[in-house]
Structure formats: structure tokens, C-alpha cells
Amino acid sequence: xxxxxxxxxxxxxxxxxxxxxxxxxxxxxxxxxxxxxxxxxxxxxxxxxxxxxxxxxxxxxxxxxxxxxxxxxxxxxxxxxxxxxxxxxxxxxxxxxxxxxxxxxxxxxxxxxxxxxxxxxxxxxxxxxxxxxxxxxxxxxxxxxxxxxxxxxxxxxxxxxxxxxxxxxxxxxxxxxxxxxxxxxxxxxxxxxxxxxxxxxxxxxxxxxxxxxxxxxxxxxxxxxxxxxxxxxxxxxxxxxxxxxxxxxxxxxxx
Length: 255
Description:
Layout: E1 2-7, H1 12-21, E2 27-33, E3 44-45, E4 57-60, H2 67-76, E5 81-84, H3 91-100, E6 105-108, H4 114-130, E7 135-142, H5 152-164, E8 170-172, E9 186-193, E10 199-207, E11 210-218, H6 222-235, E12 241-243, H7 245-254
Parallel strand pairs: 1-2, 1-4, 2-3, 4-5, 5-6, 6-12, 7-9, 8-9
Antiparallel strand pairs: 7-10, 10-11
Helix pairs in contact: 1-6, 4-5
């Protein structure tokens, strides 16, 4: 039985994780952390330093500002792995995650969906085949409560395409202030916020007289909750290192 600590336990994603864990026989939530406090079927603390329960893996769906306390908690509780699902990390925080993985077991993906990670691989393949003769634009849409833009998933997709083009692309987030033709190295990233859209992503390859669109639509937040819990069970007992969805997929192939 894997003991889980859920950060952001009273939020929408926290609720989805709680519901998914209830259906599992291989893990349980022993404590939660949330600034809002509250009463759940397990103890809820406002500060991670207050947690006293034995934890195997921490799942974080809280806020980027919680990153340092979470990493400090893992350092002071040897053997505790972290599954980081929060989006909106800045470049300094992303580097903090990478450097901390040298001493801690960390699972980090900007999207916990298997389908999105497949989309990323398809986008890389498409870019390799199509090359600079096709312009690339990424469009993402989310609910009106999402704070960060563009989404972490959109940036993950952009990075995948840019990797296939040897890092030569220039990300363009807004064109309203520019009055010039689109340049070849550009990779446009566009955000839509409205209603209750869970998450939609399109990677558009626009060539001469033809357009290829790769797309993924998330129908429920349970999709991401399932990915996070699967990652947590996978991370139990793992050694230091930076893990992501590719490790989880490979583990499934070997299992």
C-alpha cells in the first residue's frame, strides 16, 4: 500500500485525485495540504511542515509557490518521492526541479495525460518529416478559471516541435503589436480562456495549399487525476532522478 500526501487537496484537481484513489486498492491518501484548510476523510494541514504521517509519495496539484517547501519536505523525509503536476513554473523553478532530481526522486510532467504525450511524439515526427516548408502554430483552450497562459502543455508541445528543428524556432505569443509577415523560425502559441473547457490543444502545420492538424481534447479532469495517481504508484521506492510520462509508458510495456 502506497501512502500518499496530496497537496492542493481541496481544489478541483484534488477532488478528482481523491475520487480516483478511492477506487484503487494499491494506494491511500494519508494526509493533505491546502491553504484553504478544511475537513476531509484524512487530516488536512495548512503547511506541509505540519504533516506527521508516514508518506511514500507526494502528489502536488497546488500552486507554483509551493515548490520550494515541497522539495524541502522531500529532503527532510528521505525516500519520499514527489509527483509534480502543478503548471506555471518559471524558468528558475524548472531549473530547481531539474537540479533537485539529482538527490530526490521526482516525477514531473506538464501534462499527466497519456494522449497528450502521444500527441507530443506525433508532433515531433510531423516536424521531422515536414520541416521548414510548413509553418507551425499551437492553439490551446482552457476554462475561464485557469491562471497561467500559455498552458504548460502548449509549451511542452512547442518544445517538442522545436527539438525536432534543432532548437532553431522562436516562440511568438502575440502578433497584435507586430505589422510584418510571419518569419520561418516562428512558432506561434495562442491561448483561449472560456467557460468550462477542460483542455484542448491543437498543433497546426500549415503548408502550401494544405494544412495538417494534430489535436487532443480532454473530456474530464479525471484524466489527469488518473495519470497522477498512476505516476505516484510507479514512483514508490524509486531512487533519485527526474522521471516523466515516458518512464511510466515504458514501465507499462515491460509490465
